[in-house]
Amino acid sequence: MSSGAAAVTSTRKPTRKPIRTGQEYIDSLRGRNLKVWLFGELVEEPVDHPIIRPSVNAVARTYDLAVENPELATALSPFTGERVNRFLHVAQSAEDVVMQNKMQRRLGQLTGTCFQRCVGMDALNSLHSVTW
Hints:
two-stranded antiparallel ribbon, 4-hydroxybutyryl-coa dehydratase, domain 1
């Protein structure tokens, strides 16, 4: 360590509990006082807007599937040792990639639409592979 560097550690606990269910996800979006404009109209509460809400519902379904079918939609994190939503899991094997695909197919069947999280999952896996 250089003479000017100092190690920083934190024992603070997270102030928010992790989002576990679709309803918790939806609730977490409310009251953020965002300025969202859609087709020239200021949207008072984006969560309740009829054009935005289907996407919110699709993301919420990704949380609910993890509760309903943890073998499909969660994985054991090699970093924390805890079960995490598969969308947050860095693939460790070919089986992990197969399970990601099976989860995505199931969500497609359940939602009939894009569930908004695949790009983030792919980005996590790509970044892990090139920065590890």
